[in-house]
Amino acid sequence: MDVLKAGIDCDETVFNFMYHLNSFLRANGLPFVPREQQRTFDLWDLWGCSRDEAFRRVELFYESGEIKELTPRSGAVEAFERLFPPHRATIVTSRPKYMVKATKHIFAKHLPGRVDKIYHTDQYTKHLVAEDVKVTKGTIAKALGLDMFVEDALHHAEEIASHGIPVYLLNCPWNESKPTSPLITRGEWKDFPAFVESYKYAKYQER
Questions:
Q1: Which residues on adjacent β-strands are paired with residue 151?
Q2: Hey, CA dihedral for 78, 34, 21, 172, is it positive or negative?
Q3: How many Å apart are CA 101 and CA 4, to the nearest integer?
Q4: What does the alpha-carbon distance between residue 162 and residue 31 come to, in Å, rounded to a whole number?
Q5: What is the pLDDT of residue 40?
Q6: Which of 11, 27, 148 is CA-nearest to residue 76?
Q7: DSSP secondary structure code for residue 99 in this structure
Q8: How far apart are CA 205 and CA 207, in angstroms?
């Protein structure tokens, strides 16, 4: 197995989403919580507001166009430049599908030629409730035959791992709980190349 197919999340995995969202909220007089103090992934719990209000604020951020100004997370560009190619990167994000152009823009801007395809699960939208979820990061990763996945949200990591796919969970304030799946490994981008090599070695040993 010389070429691996990695699934990779977008916001707070490749790009610093919360830093830019918080800057937007502050500039517009809206409440925010510093990233380092965030202990929950759900913004409505974080901000102490309704789910609809949380999505309204995020949509204001989307509509402002500032979403195109996201900057890469520390170590992400270096990891992509080292690994993709020869390996293949597929972006799988829970962003709404109307964000396709904006998502393509930031990858073309910061990581040109490093990504094969981009998929939007449309999970992060105010109109979707849990029982309506048909397409998830895990179902897409399984259907595409991805070898591993890089994620920041623990609940997504657990769901992906439930499909038998190893997950590299980047450390964030909101994912400090202990994973239940043995397929989830914590780390930082700087250590991801070593994780890839260990995966390749393990697969070689299985032959």
A1: 169
A2: positive
A3: 26
A4: 36
A5: 96
A6: 11
A7: G
A8: 5
Mean pLDDT in order along the chain per 10 residues (207 residues) = 91 97 97 96 95 93 94 98 97 93 97 97 66 79 97 97 98 96 97 92 67
Contacts with 141 (C-beta within 8 Å, 6 or more apart), sequence order = 7, 92, 149, 160, 163, 165
Distance, in Å, from the CA atom of 43 to the CA atom of 41, rounded to the nearest integer, reads: 6
| CA nearest neighbour of 174 among 157, 193, 152 | 152
- Within 10 angstroms of residue 207's Cβ, the number of other Cβ atoms is 5
- Long-range CB pairs of 202-206, under 8 A, 24+ apart, other chains included: 203/1, 204/1
Number of H helices, E strands in the chain: 8, 6
**Residue 7, strand partner residues:** 90, 149
Structure confidence at residue 1 (pLDDT): 54
| Phi, psi (degrees; rounded to nearest 5) at 148 | -160, 170
Q: What does the radius of gyration of the chain's CA atoms come to, in whole angstroms?
A: 17
User: Which class for 95: exposed (0-12), middle (13-18), buried (19 or more C-beta within 10 A)?
Assistant: buried
What pTM was computed for the model?
0.94
Of 43, 18, 44, 157, nearest to 92 by C-alpha is 157
Residue 68 is which amino acid? K
Bridge partners, 120 (sequence order): 93
Question: Distance (Å, rounded) from C-alpha 198 to C-alpha 135?
Answer: 30
